[in-house]
Write a structure and sequence with these properties.
The complex is a heterodimer of chains A (233) and B (377). With 233 residues, chain A is of the alpha/beta class. Chain A has six helices and ten strands. The chains are: A alpha/beta (233), B alpha+beta (377).
Chain lengths: 233, 377
Amino acid sequence: MTNPLVQVEKLSKTFGAGDTAVRALVEVDLVVEAGEVVGLKGPSGSGKSTLLNLIACIQEPTGGKLSIGGETVWDGQWRVADLRRLRRERIGFIFQFHNLLPFLNAIDNVALAMTLDGVDSATARQRAGALLDYLQVGKRASAMPARLSGGEAQRVAIARALVNRPKVILADEPTAALDSERARVVMDLLRQVARDQQAAILVVTHDEKIFDRFDRMVALRDGRIEGEQLRAA
Amino acid sequence: MNLALADIRHKLGRFMLTCLGLGLLMAVALSMVGIYQGVVSEALALSRSLRADLWVVESGTSGPFAEASRIPGDVREMMARLPGVAAAGAITLRTAEAQAPQGTLRVQVIGYEPGRPGGPSAIATGRGVGGTRFEIVADARSGLPLGATLLLGRHRYHVVGTTRGLVSSGGDPLIFMQLRDSQDLQFRLAPAAARRALAAAAGGGGTDTVNAIIAQLHPGADPALVAETTRRWKHLAALTDQQQSDLLTLSVVNRARVQLGMFTVVLLFVSAVIIALIIYTMTMDKLREIATLKLIGAPDRTIIGLVLQQALMLGGVAYVAAVAIVFAARDVFPRTVALGPAEVAVMAVVIALICLVGSMVSIRAALRIEPQQALGG
């Protein structure tokens, strides 16, 4: 434990109030180190997605403390004024259904995340092209998302998540739409990214066929951490 | 990279079809503006063409357009002698149903004395009415070509010249002929009626009556002063050209003008609602994309820019289509569609404002989209 990039301390989230209140997350503690790939599993309603949303700063916790990259972002209130900027600069997202913008080709989908950060279009496209090559979809750079296979689209989505060199990558069921072979390839890519960029990767998954690709698997149930399982050496 | 443009390119066919539909609606609104202007322009076409400084009509009337007016023809000579008057001409006006080669034609007949004020300001083809009787100059709107003949009353008239853009306040094409011909047409009784009138000692033979005298003044002469002098003849009234123009626009065509104006406002309101709905639908179609943009950190200005630019592109392309449609079809309209650069420019600004206002609801909705809506299936 040398470089925690995600630190969650007694983080809670309750929806509603009074008799109808639902405690989605109850005092959860979690640390993800640089270079580590951590899986989050649990039945539906266990709080996986809620935890991911809180770490992504798109929902406000109701208690506890959250730090990203060593900076406290929530501690009873938001400590960062511009949450979108925080997400743009420090967090990469990978979605279940890739969520590429259908009106931009692969390279522009990747470059977009950089241009939003103020980088000029030529530089962004250059970096995007290099990333697509790194993820072995460089030859599909000019293809529109509708023309990409599921595996190709997911790699482009991973490239988009990586383009701003975020320290934290959050993935929500990234292999749900892929077959076993492609699912393992995607997970190996994420492991490679974690290692090469020293990023912390947190993946919500139900996909048992990739459980062996995680450094650590955290199980959630009823909003609490039920247990953790380290990868066999 | 421009997200608005990229999205439009991605759904170009759908976008262009939407623009075409909207363009047709805007074309209707633009036509109404053109017809509104056309009604005013047509109402003033004749009085402007005659270049009168003063209109002398029957006392107690506001003739010859707003009310009927009959005065003796020799008033022209009296007017010509007044100080300040450079030239005076007698005119008659009458709406008539004529038998043309293409069928029955509704026209406004103007009788005037060639060489004196009252004739067409410009001849498009052929020549003006000369010394020979039963000649006419017809406006192109009548569809009568040079050499065509027209049956008016008991005589057949020959077209010796044509004009362009000269119509009455009702939109009927103008036909110019010699004063004597028009007086016969307007005031001479049919033989049987003339015989009966003579027997009743009511006259019936005299036709030297006109509807108005128009006077052109010397430079520097005061129309109001000459009008005042004219009114001293108790049987005459005098109107300056400005008073005549006001009568034409505020009285003769006022109801049509107001009706068209109100209809234009209603059309613009309907257009605004439809534009707002289209922009809203376009925005909500991109709900997931907007949520994704927010999730990956796009600032609000990117989202606002996306909606606003698409709204303006939609309005812009639709408006260009509307202008093209109206200008291509303007001659098909039975009445003048008067659209100049000023009307087109003002309407463009109105459409741009409608697009801006119409996109406000969509921008508000887009800004309320939560980033977590990008997650899940």
